[in-house]
Amino acid sequence: MLRILHLILFIPYYFLMLLQSNWTIAKTILSPQFNFDPPGIVAVSIDLKSNTGILTLVNLITMTPGTLSIDLSDDKSKLYVHAMHVKNRESFVSEIKALENRLKKFLK
């Protein structure tokens, strides 16, 4: 029952992430200036062990505008993510870890 509650709470959390990233990408595209944060590929250590959990995380990252999961290490401990805007690598990693931690609450 608790897992269902965490799933229900996850939906608006992810929806807000989608809105924020859509807004950021729209501003980038429509802006007449070309001054935005640099793109980058970031290695993120992941704690998810199940294939279902990893696949869900990869898909959620890829469905978020401006980010793309590009590779998973052979031991499934690192996920490589390309992002259009990487202002600060540590804050980017913490956002991905927050998403992963919310997933772990309802995916076992």
So what's the oligomer here?
A: single chain
Overall geometric form = globular
Count of DSSP strands: 3
Question: How would you spell out the order of helices and strands?
Answer: HEHEEH
Helix content: 55-70%
| Fraction of residues in β-strands | 15-25%
Structural class: alpha+beta
Mean pLDDT: 93
The rounded distance between the terminal residues' Cα atoms is: 13 Å
The unreliable regions are none
Radius of gyration: 15 Å
Helix count, DSSP H or I runs of 4 or more residues: 3
Strand order, largest beta sheet: 1-3-2
Largest sheet, strands/sense/barrel: 3 strands, antiparallel
Topology readout:
Elements: H1 2-30, E1 40-45, H2 51-63, E2 67-72, E3 78-83, H3 89-106
Antiparallel strand pairs: 1-3, 2-3
Task: Give a verbal description of the structure.
The chain has helices at 2-30, 51-63, 89-106, and strands spanning 40-45, 67-72, 78-83. Helix 1 (2-30) packs antiparallel against helix 3 (89-106) and helix 2 (51-63) crosses helix 3 (89-106). A hairpin with a 5-residue loop joins strand 2 and strand 3 (78-83). Strands 1-3-2 form a 3-stranded antiparallel beta sheet, with helices on one face. The protein has 108 residues and is an alpha+beta fold.
Distinctive features:
108 residues; three-stranded antiparallel sheet; 3 helices; 56% helix
Quick gist of this model?
This protein is of the alpha+beta class. The protein has helices at residues 2-30, 51-63, 89-106; strands at residues 40-45, 67-72, 78-83.
